[in-house]
Fold:
Amino acid sequence: AQSVAQPEDQVNVAEGNPLTVKCTYSVSGNPYLFWYVQYPNRGLQFLLKYITGDNLVKGSYGFEAEFNKSQTSFHLKKPSALVSDSALYFCAVRDIPNRDDKIIFGKGTRLHILP
Amino acid sequence: DTGVSQNPRHKITKRGQNVTFRCDPISEHNRLYWYRQTLGQGPEFLTYFQNEAQLEKSRLLSDRFSAERPKGSFSTLEIQRTEQGDSAMYLCASSDQGARQPQHFGDGTRLSIL
Structure:
């Protein structure tokens, strides 16, 4: 069965510095990978996805993520953090060869951007 | 595109009561999903519909839970004889058909069991 791990419960970054939120996955075949962000008392907002092709995908609000098949990772990155980026971030995977339409979410990483 | 709408936003009820939540998906989306999210966790899949057909139910979904999407548009999630452990945020999402499509989430219904 597919799974997603977000090894850090919380990440603290100073405003203006680059940020990375880590994600590793486990699937039986080729994955479809997603990042979502959640603000307090709100639903999840889609940021970006990796389906196929270029390993570096760009998404909303200046975020990007790098797919690394050999390391089974899909880390979220941003070159310069903003205080408004402070939120809960979820990595998610869909395991296509099993024709399973479920998306499995990680436990989330809370990102704190320090002014 | 008005987004996914969920009602009510917050429901407080006594243990043992029945509750029903409603989800209105993005109008052109034929897939609708229900998730449960507890504090400190990611969303856990409960069930999903393609049009009016319920295609999969999680083993997490006990017999007290039932979901419907009668006309392939809005959906309801009912919990009968609520228990303390049912306290959570219930999230609805919708998407176009196709595994490449991201899911678009509503703001959820927070259920508190007294």
In short: The two ends of chain B are 36 Å apart (CA to CA). Residues 54 and 101 of chain B are 19 Å apart (CA to CA). Chain B touches chain A at residues 4, 6, 31, 40-45, 48, 55-56, 91, 93, 99-100, 102-108, 110 (CB under 8 Å).
